[in-house]
Amino acid sequence: MIAVQFLIPTRADLPALRRDLEDTFGGWSLIGTNYGAWRDPATGVVGFDATLRYEVGLDPDKLVYLDEYLQRLARSIGESAIWRVVIGSATALEAST
User: Fold this and answer.
1) Residues contacting 2, CB < 8 A, separation 6+
2) Which end of the chain has fewer CB atoms < 10 Å from its terminal CB, N or C?
3) What is the C-alpha to C-alpha distance for residues 26 and 24, in angstroms, rounded to an integer?
């Protein structure tokens, strides 16, 4: 399993997003609110945004489905892109008895 994080603008944090993540990927974690800036390479204009950092755990072969979902989400919320990072190996540790 891999852990994958992605940033969603705070204005686009919809209940449907969380339901989709639960239904498609089995759950989600909300890491927190982030603030950032980036320079648009086409215009040179610096943009600022407040985002929520989500994390999901999934099998590596399911990453393509998350990417497709995030691309559709970006289009539906009027974003040109959604930042996504693959963190690496992740596991759920069972409680000891």
Assistant:
1) 57, 58, 59, 60, 63, 86, 87, 88, 89, 90
2) C
3) 6
